[in-house]
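Worked example

This section walks through a single chain of length 175. The input is the sequence exactly as stored; nothing has been trimmed or padded.
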Amino acid sequence: MISFMGKQILIGIMIMLVSVHSHARVTTLQELPQSRMVGSGKLTWLGVTVYQIKLYAPEGRYRADHPHAIKINYELSFSREKMAQRSLKEIERIYGKQPKRKKMERELASVFRDVVKGDHITGVHYPGKGADFYGKHGLFGRLDDAELAAAFFAIWLDQRTSEPDLRSKLLGEMQ
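Given that input, the structure is written out below as tokens.
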């Protein structure tokens, strides 16, 4: 079971999927040909659903070294500043103290925007390259730092996640 602070951190990470600007390009999962849902779950905190989340991968088979996507449907509202801070804390919970912490926090904050209930964000991870983030109007943000992008997706997919049951559901290991 995750502590109150751990939930706060994970909630913050979810907010980071939101970015500063919107582009004309519209996509759902067009960036992942033949992608299918691997699994899904929801994060709840004190009985309240924070978000619903789905993992997509080519042919419905997740492989960490192949492109994959996470789609989050938010049930609560969050500021981008809190999201960047909480995301970094969750990354540090997995990987330890980061020597480039301030730089990482700035990069994460530059990709976020405040989210409100009903928003949905899809993050597409390209291992070794980075990640793109999409909303209802298309591409709105990009992380070009491959290591930071991998650390961000590790929040849900790494074995050391603070939400192991949610990870298992995303990977289709439990329903």
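What to look for: The beta strands are 35-45, 48-58, 68-74, 120-126, 130-135, 138-143.
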